[in-house]
């Protein structure tokens, strides 16, 4: 692994050693949010300890469009706590352990990485308007998989045209044989976490495209 020349960080989850940012193509499990990662990570060279780049540097308090009314607080859930229920991420519906964001008032919990999902994305099947990431109690049909967008599930939506696509279906190759991101490596998409990271890449590409047009 080659270190990236950035200053090492200190993290509350690993107080005794500093962590250095590395880039490597191997997979790891983040010791912060306990989900898979690939590529960049903060690593302790003395221990087997890794953090996603974002989990290593995300703020203690976050305001996010995913939960507009309250700011979210970074909390750590100990693995052997005395608890009744598994916590679920309100955005991706996977279980939550370790490091996550929470609104205590609303019991809204979200993985740090899920807060990086882009608020708007464009899709080749609906070039007229950008789609906006929303959760809604209204039941709709996903344009891609024709499945139901269930109550309270997150979807990218154009409210003007009643056009909905599941968060995960945004990356499916559609009729026109083209997604916005030229993803050639299917294996890369097998993992849900990676697919969600791709949505972020997609948004970055859109921003670059828009820059070019100016
Ligand atoms: Zn993480
Ligand atoms: Zn260490
Ligand atoms: Zn999540
Ligand atoms: Zn709240
Ligand atoms: Zn779908
Ligand atoms: Zn529209």
From TrEMBL:
<dbReference type="Pfam" id="PF03107">
    <property type="entry name" value="C1_2"/>
</dbReference>
<dbReference type="GO" id="GO:0008270">
    <property type="term" value="F:zinc ion binding"/>
</dbReference>
<feature type="domain" description="DC1">
    <location>
        <begin position="125"/>
        <end position="170"/>
    </location>
</feature>
<keyword id="KW-0479">Metal-binding</keyword>
<dbReference type="InterPro" id="IPR046349">
    <property type="entry name" value="C1-like_sf"/>
</dbReference>
<feature type="domain" description="DC1">
    <location>
        <begin position="13"/>
        <end position="55"/>
    </location>
</feature>
<keyword id="KW-0863">Zinc-finger</keyword>
<protein>
    <recommendedName>
        <fullName>DC1 domain-containing protein</fullName>
    </recommendedName>
</protein>
<keyword id="KW-0862">Zinc</keyword>
<dbReference type="InterPro" id="IPR004146">
    <property type="entry name" value="DC1"/>
</dbReference>
<dbReference type="InterPro" id="IPR043145">
    <property type="entry name" value="Znf_ZZ_sf"/>
</dbReference>
<keyword id="KW-0677">Repeat</keyword>
<feature type="domain" description="DC1">
    <location>
        <begin position="65"/>
        <end position="114"/>
    </location>
</feature>
